[in-house]
Amino acid sequence: MPMPANLSPRFQNRTYAAFLFDMDGTMLDSSAVVERTWRAWANRHGINPDDLLESVHGVRSEDTIRRFGPVGIDVAEEAAWVLKAELSDVEGVVPIAGIKALVADLDPAAWAVVTSAPRALAALRIHSVGLPMPKTLIAAEDVKQGKPNPEGFLKAAARLGVPISECLVFEDSLLA
Hints:
The protein is of the alpha/beta class. The protein has helices at 31-44, 49-53, 61-68, 75-87, 99-104, 119-128, 151-160, and strands at 10-11, 14-15, 18-22, 28-29, 94-95, 111-114, 136-138, 167-170.
């Protein structure tokens, strides 16, 4: 049953002040693009792509490059390369089943997206699967510490003007 606009979001018979969504894995699946891009990056640097792919999902590019890149690598330059590659590829990016109906019924002031992706990439992927752009989007450049640190979710709750304790977080990985 659709929820009328301007009501607090409900999930499993409980009312929340807001829903906070991780993007990839809970709203959409971009793993095909992520794997293509990071395999190419790993191969450019002589890194085992399988090892890298085990830990790349949900992590800021800069953090992955620092962890896996060779000593002395220019992190900003490599992150720009990764971003350019990902911005040029949306083939295989798909919405998670049921997400369109769920967010369509939410008050825009009662939900946010928190992602490790840069803002431009998040906007492209959200648009490419036909989801509405959230009024509140916390992206990689909005935080000092990427996931699994909860900084992004805390910022989203603050921007929505609600206590984090009254939010339901949709995340597909463990937070610190």
